User: Fold these one by one.
Assistant:
Number 1:
Amino acid sequence: MKRILICFLFLTTFGFQACSDDDSASANECPEKPANSLTKKNIQEVTLNSQISKESGIARKNKSIGYTFDAQKGQKLTYNTDEDVCVWVYAPDNELLNSAVLPINGKYTIQVSSPKGSKTFELAMGLDVAESSSNISNNNTNSSNSNSSDSNSSSSITEQEAVNLIKRWQQAKVKIFAYPFDRNLGAEILTGEIYGRNISNYDSSMKWLKDNNSYYNYGRQEINSVKNFNSSGNQATIDVVTTEERTFCKNGRPVIGQNTVLDVSRVRYNFQFDQGKWKISGYDTLEQIQKTRNSNPSC
């Protein structure tokens, strides 16, 4: 069946440049069609609605990343990125789209690759997104790195709010790294690269666990001490000592090893104000205080 060409080289939010048909096009331009096919392990299923959701990953010239979602005829697809990556949108009948208005019911696929080398990207997507939401996203992305919207510039986070967000992350792990593998819950708490590594990338922790019939179960989860809280503009950091008792489970049984442990660590958390709320944007272990075998493994 003949395909209708659509490929975009994103330059600004909700803006794009059509790919050249000239065979002599430079390496920076997108090809007429993807140079490689998507494989099952590189496709992530997402749920799109009227709220913008974000996915991130590393696009490569020789390895595409895909996002698949269910949609209805007549819905309008919105997406944006501030990175120079190539994006193709496939309809359920495997036709390449040439319109934001979706033509049929079914499962659509967004394929992302880099015109050269590799590129870390963040892709925002939604269906029937309100105009006001689109405008907010435009303003935030097209501004300099100051995140210049009024809500971002005037918002701050307190030390206690930062601690509460870490506690929420601890409590959410049992639903993120085990059934129901709640991606939406993860998106409420995490953002940026750490969201990609844990939730949305094709090689994320969540996807690996699901693909390998595995999950984590958690016992004790505590914050033992807090220090070095700093907040500036739309970013903040804090150092905490945490205790976590976890069991790595596979096929419903504990796996005794380095992932079934009682872990006490000093961790630095980074926060960022994103889409009107504070989220965790990163964390690094500064010191491994104690790591011993979990004496009470449970699945």
Number 2:
Amino acid sequence: MLPHELPPPEAGPRAGDPADALAQARRENATLRESLLRAQGALAAIADGVAVTDPAGRITSLNPVATHLTGWTGTEALARNISEVVRLVDAGGLGVDPLREGFRDRDDVMSLVRHDGHVILVDGAVAEIHDDARQLLGYILTFRNVTAATRLARELSWHANHDPLTGLLNRRVLEARLQRALDSAGRLGCRHALLYLDLDRFKAVNDSGGHVAGDELLRQLAMALRRQLREGDTLARIGGDEFAALLENTDVQQAAAVAHKLIEAVEQFRFAWQGFGYRLGASAGLIEFSGEGLEAEDVIEAADRMCYVAKESGRGRVATDVLRAVRPQHPTAAVRPVPATGRSVRSAGPASERRS
């Protein structure tokens, strides 16, 4: 070979060789398959249900949790509209479009109607899928079963707000609503009333029938008292045999009429236990309040004092008063609650019906 001559080129694949293109395609296909398997593995490992759709909302895949929650298999769900598979219903019983109306807020909880008709509670989120050019490729919907958690939260909330024995509201809720009523009285000049009801002769039931009898009596009596009040009135059990009713937008005369109704309901109530019959009585303290500067505890204490006055006056009576907040002239002095009128004690019925 002369010095200026080049060696002949080695034999190899030519540009556009079909074998080379096939090999490249196989490598790309293997890479895509690996990516798909990794994505499927990730979806299967997610603890939430995941549904993927095309831009029209037709399902392209469900992960195992989604098939379990909806009751649809992946094959059954494929190409169906997501509203058919993930059937969401709001609190009013209306159907919800999962992609456009569902889970707008993070705390949204909706009912999911499964393929077999059973209903569970779910929360979730919706996201759009875009390509690099911002073209819509589809949607991804994630959701999870919160039935047990929601029921537990509701039970805890119920127990936090209710008396476990009678099912009536408890003192904490009464105080909160009473403070709200005080605020509205100060802002709007409304008049409200608080009624404090104490049972008479309840101790005899506990002494003769035991606490089980006393508990059952309170449960039954609570329902009888609730029937005497308006829908918006607040009835709470605040002690062993003590109840309180917040009557909003009511003056003292109207509230006194309600107090007499409650006392009459107690006196007409008959309780039977193990062959014995029991009759009760009740006394009530009633406070009308309005204006600023009062606290919930001020009103409760005033109503409690009036209830004591009613008992001392012969029982079966209603003692009323009006509570106002007095603002002192000195700016640093505290606002103090004082009765605004003389006390009034009224019998709830004929004296012959009063028994100690």
Number 3:
Amino acid sequence: MPSSATSPWAGAPGPRTPTAPSRRSPRPSAPIRGWPRRWDAQDPALLAEFPAFRAEFEAFLAEYGHRETKTAILATSPTWGESPDVVLGLVKVLVAEPPEESGRPASALRELLSHPRLRGPKRRARMERRVAAARAGMVFREDSHFELTRPLPILRHALLEAGRRLAEAGVLETAEDVYHLRLEEIEGLDGPDTAAARRLRGTVRTRASRREELSGVRLLDTRLIYPRPEGETALVSGTPASGGTVTGPVAVVRGPEDFGKLRDGDVLVCLYTNPSWTPLFRRARAVVVDTGATASHAAIVAREYGIPAVMGTGTGTATLTDGQTVTVDGDTGRVVAADS
């Protein structure tokens, strides 16, 4: 799903790229718009009642199902094709009601080009070329990520097939246990009932236990990377990454499982984003992210969609709560209570 190959900066379509068509996302038929209760279940089996939408949905997954649900770096997380409920959560967000159209990006470009130092035609033309180059760079960033994820289904299938065979042979308890092993450890096996196999099962239990123990522990303490300024009175603060000031209710989205909770006009608060999160920006009034800076994915997409963004807050997801009404100032990087 979407790259923003059509950038509101220029108000005209950019170059056709692999991710550009995905911005259309599955278009729900009229009956689905009146299906809020059952849609909340995000159950792919219910699509049988909507054959036209189901056909388009399946075609969409055939083309874009290799996209990651969480990260393109690890193969342990399922893809969109394996977790269609995640995509249904995105569709639920997109069909709730028509999104508000923002004119800020186009007006920002006009403001930029009206700067006194750009009155000369040569300087103005040079700046327009730089804006076009920036747009192309954004498209390239999205498309390179899109292409990077293409091998994920093949890689996951190979790993899980190896795990399935080892589980059938009695070496592993489940196919997913293979994720706790290294290739050389598997290649060194000489049978299911050998000392090596018993050591391997012990290794799996030890590593699984250790990973479970660390599952709630962040690899980096964001409070050390993004320390809170002395005397700061805002609820959270960070790097201003996309200008504007808006007020709205908070929706804390920690992962794809929470996509469906975002409603039109919510302030999206999250740990991070990647290209699979981009459809959420059509609904969000602003975005507040624990990590990142002005060149991060969330900052770039927020600027394209013309919504305020505050990056690197460190504690946004821990401090702000669902439904809390806040004012986000994307020019100063501060998030305050709406009544303050």
